[in-house]
Each structure stands twice: as structure tokens, then as C-alpha cells.
């Protein structure tokens, strides 16, 4: 089967994030299954991915901007005409034009929706919808594509319900596909209790979604740790660094603004505790990767975290992002670390059984095989 994914953002030259990780995992697993896989995306080829893979990148050579959805749509349609795929799957706003084109030309099409939040759009409330369009143009274009699509996949039950409640999408066209964890995490068995990095936090540094500043304040009041590694970048990165300097422990913190997924895995393989705070997630993939790396986890109660991990003794779920509670948990974990570490495999085995990318990818293409 010839499969084309479309994505309005770039992969390496202009930034990297969760959406790219998801796309790469879909392409890796489907290629291993014997399918011909390619992707249309923004940016340009810096030889980072395209020369390492068995799938093809079609770059549009444009930096992501406010018109990325439109640029990506027309670029993708040109590629669709050229390679004639059996299935097109859109991840972002370019879906608005691609769904129409595929429907008109009898090409199988679907969307995969993974956004942490979906802004409200409805013809029943035009004032609110117009306001949201102003701040979420890419989501509006995606919304149009979803309404035209006969098959829409969600990353989680949370996103599934947002598609119904916020976008008014018919349940008949939605399936909760879920998400997977990269094989390099699932197959990694190198972690041991003798490590250097005590704590790691991974994610976008933007306080409104991921209040890592609360973690910084909690760590200042906990004296049991030696090193904190922060992987991520964002609009509040300078604020976070300034806060840590003011608190007086900057020399105990290492910052990495961007990393390939394999590099993140190497860091997590040398980590005792992952401290992951968030206010909202569609699927908190970083938490699953940390558990798969045999980390003890302190994590916010978002997405499916409580549903999946409330029974495991090495996953500590925060009902609210309380500084005081984080301090208590850090001290408890570091004082009982070796006893807890022996139990980390239980949660990892659960992830292996439920969140394999091969299973997720097979579910994506099965309706279109004939």
C-alpha cells in the first residue's frame, strides 16, 4: 500500500516536537510492515532524517508561518498528483484542502488529531468561533478538513470527546486510535540503579501548559537530589533560567533546547526520576517514554495517566500541581529509591502490552485495505 502523510510543520531545521515523533513512528512501523510510505512537510532537507530512513520526505522549502496550512495544502496536493497514493493521512491544518481534493478524486483519506486542546468552532456560535479563528487559524483549517473527512482518528479518548463537543463532529466518522511508544524506549534495558542524573523534565517550556516553574521552586526546597536535566524550549525558557539563577542552584541544572528522540532516550536511560508537570495533554507521550525507560515518575493528572497508571507503585500522580506535594514525593522517592526501582518493570510491561506502534499503525490502515 502506498501511504502519504501530510504535516504543515518542519522536522529538523526549524524545530522538532511531539507531532514529528508521532509521524516518524507511524512511518517507521508502516515501512517495516512492507508499505511504501512518504510525508509532505515544511522546511528543507538538512540530511538529518531523509538519508537515514526507508521513507521519503517531500519538503516544501518554506519556513512554518501563519500561512503554513495553505502552503502545505497546495504542496501536498502537487505531491498527491505526482505519486498517486492509496491513502492520505493529514495531521494538521492542510487537511482543509486535501480532504476535498481526495474526496473529489476518490482517494482514501483520513485525519489524525493529536492537539492537546481543540478550540471551539461552530456555526451555532459565530462570535466565539471567529474569536478562536483569530488565535487558532491552523486549527480552523483542520476543523474544515475533519468535517469533510469520512474517517477521523483521535490520539486519545480526551481528544475524541473534544472532536464531538468542540467541533461537532459526527461520532460515526471518529475512532479513538490512540498513540504508541517508540521501539527504542520499549526495547531499552540499559537502565540500572547506579545513575548520575537524579531528575529529568522533558517538554515545551511554556508555563500556561507545562508549569515547570512550580517544579523549579519545589526542587529548590528539596535537598536530596544532585542534578536536574531539562529538555525543551519555549517562550518561558528565559524566565525559567532566571528563576533558577535567583534561587541559587543553576550549577545543578543542565538545559538542552532540542534533541532527537534517540538522544532523549539516552538521557532517560540515565535518570532516576522524571518530573513531568502539565495542565492539559491529549496524550502525555513523554510520561510513557519515561516509564518505558524504567524511571520513577511524578506526573500531573492529565489525559489517560490516572486511567493507565493509578495502580502502579512507581507512578506518582498529582491531583493538582502542588509545590508542597512535589517536595514530599521527591524526598520519599530518593529516600526509598532502590526499593522502588525494583518495581519499575511492572508499569513498563503494561506499556509494552498496550502501546506498540505496530498495533496502532495496523489499526490506522485496516479500514482502507481491500
Secondary-structure map:
Layout lengths: L1 E5 L11 H15 L3 E6 L14 E4 L8 H16 L3 E4 L4 H10 L3 E6 L12 H10 L1 H12 L3 E3 L2 H9 L8 E3 L6 H4 L10 E6 L9 H10 L6 E4 L5 H11 L5 E4 L4 H8 L2 E6 L8 H8 L3 E5 L4 H5 L5 E4 L4 H13 L1 H5 L2 H11 L2 H9 L5
Parallel strand pairs: 1-2, 1-4, 2-3, 4-5, 5-6, 6-7, 8-9, 8-11, 9-10, 11-12, 12-13
Helix pairs in contact: 1-16, 2-3, 3-5, 4-5, 8-9, 8-13
Q: How widely separated are the two ends?
A: 10 Å
Structural class: alpha/beta
Runs in which pLDDT lies below 50 for 5 or more consecutive residues are none
Q: For the CA atoms, what is the radius of gyration?
A: 21 Å
User: Largest beta sheet, briefly?
Assistant: 7 strands, parallel
Q: How much helix, percentage-wise, in residues? A: 40-55%
What's the arrangement of strands in the largest beta sheet? 3-2-1-4-5-6-7
Question: Could you tell me the number of beta strands?
Answer: 13
Can you count the helices? 16
Average pLDDT figure: 91
| Tertiary shape | globular
* Series of secondary-structure elements, N-terminal to C-terminal: EHEEHEHEHHEHEHEHEHEHEHEHEHHHH
In percent, how much strand structure appears in the residues? 15-25%
